[in-house]
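> run fold 5'-3' exonuclease
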Amino acid sequence: MGREHLLLIDGMALLFRSFYATAPRWMMNSRGVPTNAVYGVVKQIEAATNVLQPTHVVCCWDMGSTTFRTEWFPDYKANRGEPPHELIPQFDLAKEAVAMLGIPNIGVLGAEADDCIGSLVKQYRDEMRISIMTGDRDLFQLLSEHVTVYLLAKGIGNYEAYTLERFIKEKGIQPQQLIDVKALMGDASDNYPGVRGIGEKQAFKLIQQYGSIEGIMENLANLTKAQQQKITEHLDLLHLSRKLATIHCDIPLHLRLDEAKWDGRRKRFVEVLEAIM
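> ok
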């Protein structure tokens, strides 16, 4: 493992968080386009690159609401409303700003930003240290000895750093086992059900005890009657939820690592902000 360090940015998480952290009506450019979220994205990237000192940076994006997950389960994320109208023109503007910083924008139709991040992690985790900046705890399943997740906290440049060691200590499971926990408990934010009647606490306990969905099924007789009934009645939803919870790490991406090389020029941030504001 060399000194190279790849920072993977969850662009959608950064953009939405930045939008809701400030008032769009007070930040408009000369064309009348709101810029509050884009400003926040640029400032967050400036802070992250300063704190984490990466040698390479990539920003990943969702590419629309239709993905392979909505093909499997049409109600996936169907509970989410349309983005605020002040945010809509900032999607493209944010990507422009990121590109102006010299950072590649990565997104694949039919996949989510998480899948792009996961695919880059799989491709480069044995070659370099990787940091993931996100607001999404689902990305904990990508943690490893050389992969750290930085959860966005309140304010610019503030994070909760999750290493493999911290995750195991706090959760009592391995990162990949998080998929089976989510399969059991479901995800209200992403709108998939899991096993109805099994919540987070019970899901963690079952995976801690039996290791996996397969381990639970092999020991079904050892569960309470209520647990047995819930799982057997919702077996199809359990396996579907497991598919939906899994970050897919085999998305074909067209990126040369040298395109993501980060030179760390501070002046560039000022230039980009002047251009978009």
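Residues 5-169+247-267 form a domain with the Rossmann fold fold (CATH 3.40.50.1010).
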